[in-house]
Specification:
Length: 321
């Protein structure tokens, strides 16, 4: 059973995932029941330069609310200036601060998870942003920079005292990358030792994992990342899967249909050429675990138009029927 608290319509939220969580995918996840969504991380500096592409990345439709726009940066002045621009131009429900990105390009600029090594700067950034805008501010952290310095309870207590409205914790260190299991016990410890809502994140691949995370940690909501890719129906209260993990025939058709719907929406937003290109990685993920998926993927990668993709799926469903 998934408990209810925290002021959201549900308990499962979509994680920010750069390159995947555009408006099209966020709407799909919302329609399946995601209670909240986030944009990819957006460079605060690019926002202050009023970069056109950056502004496009922050556009969202009313259907996506509640939505968080996630900012990434390390200069408190730039972060505050960017937050003001975001608040004035987009009015998201929350501005989320990225203190978890492990990517070298980001960390080398002292941004993302690098700030876990400089708690005093993280505190300055957070306070400046909270005081600069009239909308809630949240933060997303990893559990630490490395095993030796890992102390998410102190970090979240600091964030709480700076005035953030909630935190999301992905309990892996930066040094871990995505290796090993996320240590959910940090989520429990953060929840038990702070008073703001805590969103737990990490390794939730099916609804049952989410129920387990709630039970083991007492978190207020669960954020799902990779488990939603090619699998947005994770957000609905799914029936128990087959014991052997196999997929029913109807699921195959449902998956193909969902992928087609996603593609149509991608083409509507970006046009046929870009829409299909942007969709390729999603199509690969939708077909994961389907029978004869290798062959299906090969044909999908070669498809150049909506008509081609439609034809590939029709032939495929006929072939396995
Ligand atoms: C492709 C990809 C892109 C990501 N981009 C972001 C991002 O822009 N901002 C962020 O805070 N986390 C980002 N993450 C991390 C996820 O939000 C999440 O914390 C992580 O994947 C663990 O959750 P999961 O096990 O449910 O996937 C990204 C993860 C992946 C796999």
């Amino acid at each position: 059973m998934i408990p209810t608290s925290f002021n959201l319509s549900g308990k499962l939220v979509l994680a920010p995932m750069a390159g995947f969580t555009d408006s099209v995918f966020r709407i799909i996840c919302k329609r399946f029941g995601a209670a909240m969504v986030f944009t990819d991380l957006i460079s605060a500096r690019a926002i202050t330069y009023k970069n056109k592409k950056t502004f496009e990345m922050m556009e969202f439709s009313e259907e996506e609310r509640p939505i968080g726009i996630q900012l990434c940066g390390s200069d408190p002045d730039v972060m505050a200036e960017a937050a003001i621009i975001v608040a004035e131009n987009f009015r998201p429900d929350v501005i989320d601060l990225n203190f978890g990105c492990p990517v070298k390009k980001v960390v080398n600029k002292n941004e993302g998870s690098a700030l876990l090594k400089d708690i005093s700067l993280m505190s300055k950034i957070t306070s400046r942003v909270v005081n600069a805008v009239d909308i809630p501010v949240s933060a997303k952290i990893r559990s630490g920079w490395d095993k030796e310095s890992e102390d998410p309870v102190s970090v979240v207590n600091m964030l709480q005292s700076c005035g953030v409205s909630f935190v999301t914790i992905h309990p892996r260190t930066r040094a871990q990358g995505y290796k090993g299991a996320a240590n959910w016990d940090w989520i429990r410890q953060v929840k038990e030792n702070t008073s703001i809502p805590v969103i737990g994140n990490g390794d939730v691949l099916k609804y049952q994992d989410a129920a387990r995370m709630f039970q083991q940690t007492g978190c207020d909501a669960v954020m799902i990342g990779r488990g939603a890719l090619g699998n947005p129906w994770i957000f609905k209260d799914m029936a128990a899967p087959q014991q052997d993990g196999s997929i029913e025939q109807s699921d195959v058709t449902e998956k193909c249909f969902a992928a087609m719907t996603h593609l149509k929406q991608s083409i509507e937003k970006y046009g046929e050429y870009s829409g299909i290109r942007r969709m390729r990685k999603h199509l690969i993920l939708y077909t994961h675990n389907l029978p004869k998926s290798r062959e299906l993927r090969k044909h999908l990668i070669e498809a150049k138009s909506m008509k081609d993709v439609d034809g590939v799926f029709r032939e495929y469903v006929k072939g396995i029927g």
